[in-house]
Amino acid sequence: MSKYFHSLSQTPHRLKSRMLATWTPDQEVNQVRLRSGADMKRKLRWFDLVSLGVGGMLGVGVFVTTGPVARDISGPAVFISYMIAGFSALLSSLCYTEFSVNVPVAGGAFSYLRVTFGEFIGYFGGVNILLEYVLSNAAVARSFTEYMCTAIGVSDPNAWRVKVIGLAKGYNELDFPAVVLILLLTLCLCHSTKESSMLNLVMTVFHVLFFGFVIIAGFCHGDGVKALVEPRGLTPYGARGVVNGAAVVYFSYIGYDTVSTLAEEIQNPSFSLPVGIIGSVSVVSVLYCLMSLVLCVMVPYNEISKSASYAVAYRRIGWGWAGNVVGAGASLGIVASLLVAMLGQARYLCVIGRARLVPSWLAKVHPSTGTPLNATLFLGICTAIIALFTDLEIVMELISLGTLCVFYLVANALLYRKYTLTGQNAPFHTLSFLALLSSFSLAFSLWWKLNKPWWGLTLFMALTVAVTAFFQYHTWSISSTTNKNLLTPSCPSKWSVPFMPWPAAASVFLNVFLTTTLKTVSFQRFAIWTCLVTMFYVLYGVHRTYEAEEMGRVEVVEIHLTSTRVQPETLDNVQMAIP
User: Fold this and answer.
1) Which residues sit opposite 44 in a β-bridge?
2) pTM metric for this prediction
3) Which of 521-526's residues contact partners 24+ apart within 8 Å by CB, and which partners?
4) Which residue numbers in the chain have pLDDT < 70?
5) Alpha-carbon separation of residue 573 from 488, 557, 560, 569 (angstroms)
6) For labeling, which of 20, 28, 112, 411 is most exposed (least CB within 10 Å)?
7) Whether the Cβ atoms of residue 239 and residue 513 lie closer than 8 Å to each other
8) DSSP string covering 417-431, please?
9) How far is 529 from 134, CA to CA, in rounded Å?
10) CA dihedral 288, 293, 295, 301 (to 10 degrees)
11) pLDDT tens per residue, range 66-100
12) What's the chain's Rg over C-alpha atoms?
């Protein structure tokens, strides 16, 4: 205990030493990875990644968020909300893809941010993506119970839940089937990644075929355009409702980033990762738009059920048997999405454990299965506990906020890494551009949210475009002077985002814009979460990483001095020479 209090007394010094400390991609790939003991097994190929990305997203979005958003936020124009969210997700996926090719480790956003902006920003992004995974998995598991009730013909979607008197509303319906499902998938993931991938591939193929049935049958037996324009037109909540809906359905695209966390288990990652990430986002975006459109074609938006929306919609048009099929197909899709998401969350926690920001036993990889066993079990139990109590509506917007925040940081990190760390721009120039880009994006977004005159929107959009164009011209000028074109990939043999910096800048803009459309309560809960994880970093994480990294280097230096009998006055030079 006295040792810990001594460490606390050194907190300011340790924060100064560690908050902005970065690792190189080579260190992440070759040194930090060794802390897991055993390597993960490289068995996945590009088609595994596409199926994992598709499977991870399909079960979440359509069957969980479409009904509530169409009914209360966007109206029949919910398919436009999916288009906006899909375009934003595609831009973010481009940023993830370039990072995953250049830093092929299991840490995803955590590793990308840590090698760019330092330890604390990486930690903040990592724990937020973990929050997103755990809460979304819990929410989706609870929706599995609703659709299983529908699949076997039970009319009440809450029939299998146990209502407890005395608990607060939203936490008083215990969902034991969701808990059982999560625990079974946890055991499956502990066994093998490749076998889990094959199981997902089979489920995803059946799920896509099922989607085709729902889309074709819905368009054939729906009311067509009439259902879209009645009773209050295509956009009953206005353009703002469409955009606000896009921020909520962004939850539906959680899953593609899981592919980037499998970088250590992929054969030929420089080819497979771009195909897996971009391919899965593109396929899912098209399916989402068609599925959301067909729901509003079958049922007027104000009559859509919030629970098991598609199954109830088929019953309304007289296809009771189809409602049961939809319930079964949705349940299968939800299982596939849970499998993929739980696969990704364990790898995030494993790499955060390698960095010593959480207890190091969470980083261990089992030598025989090649899976992060401890992280998988720990997060599986946490997800099951939350799924037992917590209603979907309580966590949906908090999930979207955390996701948008991380994707915003990754887009900024790509710009800084591409033009400063591996390019010729001075840090001040790139950071000034990022600050101005975020400021103009925020100004535009708040102007929109507060319903101000249109001239302000035009002004701030023009400023956003102008500052991006000026940055591109400035970068081109520097590259021309140094005979190095930074607008092309710095490493021609590796995949790079085309037309930079525009895709990453657009990703920053859209993530800021969608974030400001969320409700105030989401920001309040996010602020509480931010305070908690910051306290954990200050009280635990920074001390563990300081001891592991800084004190570890001193020990190595002392051993080196003893073995080579170097004079003490050369200590500084030795420290500089040791990675």
Assistant:
1) 266
2) 0.80
3) 521/397, 522/397, 522/398, 522/400, 522/401, 523/401, 525/398, 526/398, 526/401, 526/402, 526/405
4) 1, 28-41, 59-61, 106, 155, 157, 170-171, 192-194, 196-197, 222, 224, 307-308, 391-398, 482-494, 550-579
5) 37, 10, 12, 9
6) 20
7) no
8) IIIIISSS--HHHHH
9) 14
10) 120
11) 888 888 888 888 899 999 888 888 888 888 888 88
12) 25
- For strand 162-163 and strand 173-174, is the pairing parallel, antiparallel, or unpaired? antiparallel
First-residue to last-residue Cα distance in the chain: 31
Nearest to 338 by CA among 404, 387, 279, 300: 387
Q: At what angle do helices 502-516 and 454-481 cross, to 10 degrees?
A: 150
- Cβ atoms of 306 and 158 within 8 Å: the answer is no
In angstroms, the CA 414 to CA 355 distance is 21
DSSP-derived secondary structure for 431-462: HHHHHHHHHHHHHHHHHHHTT--HHHHHHHHH
Per-residue model confidence as pLDDT tens digits over 516-525: 877 788 788 8
Which residue from 375, 376, 445, 432 is spatially nearest to 404, judged by alpha carbons? Answer: 445
| Measured CA angle at 114 (ends 246, 135), to 5 deg | 40
Which residues have a Cβ under 8 Å from the Cβ of 571 and sit 6 or more positions away?
Answer: 557, 561
Evaluate whether 199 touches 52 at the Cβ level (below 8 Å). Answer: no
Find tokens 């939350």 and name the residue.
Answer: 386
Q: Tokens 């969470």 label which residue?
A: 362
3-state secondary structure of 490: coil
Q: Which two tokens stand for residue 530?
A: 């931010």
Q: Judge whether 494 and 102 are in contact, CB under 8 Å.
A: yes
